[in-house]
Amino acid sequence: MNELLYTLLVTATIYHADPKQTDSTPFITASNKIIDSINPAKHRWIAVSRDLESLGFTFGACVYIEGISEELDGEWEVQDRMNKRWKKRIDLLVNKDRMCCKWDNIKLTLLK
Fold first, then answer.
1. Within 13 Å, how many C-alpha atoms sit on residue 38's CB side?
2. Residue 50's closest CA among 5, 14, 90?
3. Which residues lie closer than 8 Å to 21 by C-beta, 6 or more apart?
């Protein structure tokens, strides 16, 4: 694992590349990355609430997530931004077959 830079506790949720959950361009992230429409989860990309950006959780940043599940814990990359109403929150991009979930007090670590 990479060197740790910063750790905090956040609420984690999941999202799908779907206009009902994103905007009119669901397969393009806020960082202009193109999401694989067949298997979005393969990217291991997350969206972050805007308040986390000032802490270094910006596009391209690698993070380590702990406290969700064996499948979802691990390294992810920030490639999207959440609606401005959210604070201390991350959204994990997953495939549509995964049911919606919410987890509190998830350990989010910024990696170098």
1. 0
2. 90
3. 15
Phi-psi region of 79 (alpha: psi -120 to 50; beta: other; left: phi over 0): alpha
Assign 59 to helix, strand or coil.
Answer: coil
CA 33/CA 68 separation, integer angstroms = 25
Summarised one tens digit per residue, pLDDT across range 9-60 is 999 999 999 888 887 888 999 999 999 999 999 999 999 999 999 999 999 9
Dist. CA 35–CA 29, nearest whole Å: 7
d(CA 91, CA 82): 8
The model's pLDDT over 64-108, given as tens digits with 9 standing for 90+, comes to 999 999 999 999 999 999 999 999 999 999 998 888 789 999 999
